[in-house]
Amino acid sequence: MNNFTFTLDPASRVPLYQQLYAAVVGEIRAGRLRGGERLPSKRSLCRHLGVSRSTVETAYGILCDEGYISSRERSGYFACELFRTPPAPEPPPLPRRSAEPACRIDFSTGDVDTSAFPYASWARLTKEVVYSSPQLLQRGDRQGDEPFRRELCAFLREWRGVSCMPEQIVIGAGVEYLTDLLLQLLPEDAAIALEDPGYTAARRLFELSRRAFVPVRLDAEGMDVQALEDSGAAVAYLTPAHQFPMGMTMPVGRRTRLLKWASEREGRYIVEDDYDGEFRYFSRTIPAMQGLDPGGRVIYIGTFSRSLAPSIRVAYMVLPPPLLDAYLRGFAHSSSTVSRLEQETLRRFIAAGLYGRHLRRMNNLYRRKQALLTEALLRLEGASVSGADAGLHLLLRLEGADAVRVAERAAEQGVRTYPLASYAVRAAVPQDTLVLGFAGLTAETIAEGCRVLAQALAAERANKK
Amino acid sequence: MNNFTFTLDPASRVPLYQQLYAAVVGEIRAGRLRGGERLPSKRSLCRHLGVSRSTVETAYGILCDEGYISSRERSGYFACELFRTPPAPEPPPLPRRSAEPACRIDFSTGDVDTSAFPYASWARLTKEVVYSSPQLLQRGDRQGDEPFRRELCAFLREWRGVSCMPEQIVIGAGVEYLTDLLLQLLPEDAAIALEDPGYTAARRLFELSRRAFVPVRLDAEGMDVQALEDSGAAVAYLTPAHQFPMGMTMPVGRRTRLLKWASEREGRYIVEDDYDGEFRYFSRTIPAMQGLDPGGRVIYIGTFSRSLAPSIRVAYMVLPPPLLDAYLRGFAHSSSTVSRLEQETLRRFIAAGLYGRHLRRMNNLYRRKQALLTEALLRLEGASVSGADAGLHLLLRLEGADAVRVAERAAEQGVRTYPLASYAVRAAVPQDTLVLGFAGLTAETIAEGCRVLAQALAAERANKK
Asked: Is the pTM of this model over 0.90?
């Protein structure tokens, strides 16, 4: 039986045809059966291996189908030629992910309290939606489903003062995804001004996309308009509701001045990242800048990930007409990145008033946490707090202390805090200030975190003397 | 009462403080109250408008908070300066979306049959998952949750012969999203070879990303290796399971030859888009090319959107170690684009064996549709069918007929078909061939569609004589 040396095992749980298939593949791959060489006829192989004709036929059929062998009429089956790739000299090791050091308490600005997540209504809506319409399983609108955009449009008008049509909204899987999409709509040579200090994730995104960006300094009201003008940037990326990390809310005067800047030259835009726009503690929320803009120069971006749950990846972007036009021309055939079932769940959640109720509840919850934290922090020696009118983080100034050293000392005790300086690119920022997020903490972890901070501060002050 | 001319309406449903707020904003925005001008004192305004002190206090509080007015100690409240932006000369019209012409029956290659969607198990799992763990609401792993990747890894090994570790898998919201991500991991100057004729959506993606790409011709087995070599491309984008649109399955000999091409120079890669890899009708599915690759040169990409439902936006990509390294370095801080609740639902769906069962059912369903369609098509004059061993589309050759004209005639009757020529960039392809998808059609629409095609063909043949 020419070069076939294998045997099959009738006792194995692997079907005989599959054993035969694997054996022939092995012979060919190992080069014992070369390209062009003839295989035994089905009949002789049956006899040789003591298997049924159908076993051989099935195996030969698969081998033909995959191209390991081919049949020539009246002359039988022949092995096809395979090309050998030398295996990598050493199997390249899988790169390791760098693990973050463990900590007990994290004053992270990215965390969210999900303890008040509306489990019951979400589970109910989610289930209802699966059965609601077979159409929902088919491909949806690339911009997001129209009924969802309509509902969201009404919500944004009422809650955030955003003035737009549902046609201007694009739904996408997260703020990063939408920002990346936006970059593809803006002229390639448009440099982008980022707040300095500012949102590190946005900066990273611009770096990754290889877009030119310029850090522009802030004053007490937000981005410095003269510095913006001087930077030559065509687009300004702003967080007016609660500047990250400085925590101020941009007053309407500065907003209108920046809108004027945008209107003064063709192709200028403002990206309004409505970061923390839903959360404001001592008065009602401040309407978005987008609603003040008569000229169509603002791109408004928001998300459900911070207001509802970080694991829900739904964000939205409102495009002014010229960019909408670029989107429709460039992305006419792309697919949405958000499941339609999830879009419909969210639509019903908003329409039933459940989202509004959830936001009110979260505002109360965060206001209480913020008050607890502020109270505890103000007991620290030389401490003052700012940026606490809104949002999920605040600034703690420790008069004269080295914030990096305090943070290091606290980290040794398992408490992570964030020196303000780490968010600055070129800007000079106070070196005695920490940025503290509180959304993910409880009354207990806030108390314990502040206790550790107090120790760290005391040790640092003692060391300095 | 200096320049305040408005009155409030106590009968309105809008609270008085809000009417007052809006009125002052209106005065300032209209320029009737200028920056630096003093507002009436709270007391005099109470008297003038006949409202309570708390109404005025609330309104002034909000105005201060938003920055419309500011208070100076012992001298009262002053309007802040707003900047006026000239409104766009004409409100720019919203660009219209180009509507696709209506059709009764669409032989689209992108459609999917969702009639056999596992509603009951999906609804049950979806609901269970909401309650399963509060942790699922928090931010997840950027690559996709580890338990889901582990389950998917085992599934891909068993069903598609993919050989990888869970650490190599990246989950993302659709094949387009992942391909776009992949482009950011490949060297910027690496030109990409695309099959010609090929997948239009992939080409569009490369155009949008401004990456250099080269169309490379096919022969009967798939991408022509010599033409690929000559193209100077470093990366080849392939659909080996069921080439789109030609419909052939790449035999193992060609697969190994392309793998050898990739191994011959540093930085060469093959992107294996496992398009239609789950669907094969006359033998078992053919294992992925990735599993044949000893050198770590294949990026494997697949999706649940075609096997489960287009509206479910979950796809996966298997990265070889050097690209995984680039991913971990560049995207260490990015967020996942897929809801964790959906990931966990899919994980349970696969783990319970429901996905495998669903795929078997869909294979049977599509095999029947394909047989129906083939049978009907072969009754057409001069017709032959190819590319029908696998996947959700096939090629119909109408010997000597002008496929574009036939498609036009059919479209007049509301039946949309796709001339093969429309998928070619530079390649010479038969002008008498149509690409027909059948997944979204029923027995009735297949029959009716073929009837219209027969008429269109007859009219075209008659016209030609």
From this structure: yes
Residues in chain B within 8 Å Cβ distance of A88 = 294-296
Chain A residue numbers with beta carbons less than 8 Å from the beta carbon of B126 are 126-127, 130, 341
Of residues A247 and A207, more confidence is placed in A247
- pLDDT at position B1: 46
Q: Compute the mean pLDDT over every residue in chain B, rounded to the nearest whole number.
A: 93
B275 with B387, same domain: the answer is no
- Claim to verify: residue A280 and residue A135 sit in the same structural domain: yes
**What is the model's pLDDT at position B7?**
84
A37: closest CA of chain B, how far (Å): 14
pLDDT of residue A92: 66
Q: Which residues of A touch B88 (CB under 8 A)?
A: 294-296
C-beta atoms of B94 and A208 within 8 A: no
Q: In this predicted structure, which of A374-388, B85-99, B346-360 has the lowest mean pLDDT?
A: B85-99
The sign of the torsion formed by the CA atoms of B233, B238, B244, B246 equals positive
Size of interface A-B (CB pairs under 8 A): 278
Judge: A342–B342 Cβ closer than 8 Å, yes or no: yes
Q: Which domain holds residue A384?
A: 105-110+359-464
B177/A174 CB distance under 8 A: no
Over the stretch B281-297, which tens digit does the pLDDT of each residue have? 988 889 999 999 988 99
Q: Would B146 be classed as within a structural domain?
A: yes
Q: Is residue B303 part of a domain?
A: yes
Clarify whether residues B211 and B226 are in a common domain. yes
Domain shared by A300 and A339, yes or no:
yes
User: Does A130 map to a domain?
Assistant: yes
Domain count, chain A: 3
* Closest chain A residue to B308, measured at CA: A137
Looking at the structure, tell me whether residues A345 and A202 fall in a common domain: yes
State whether B295 and A85 contact (CB < 8 Å): yes
Q: CA–CA separation, A136 vs A138, rounded Å?
A: 6
Closest-CA distance of chain B to residue A148, Å: 14
Q: Could you tell me if B234 and B133 lie in one domain?
A: yes
Residues A421 and A317 in one domain: no
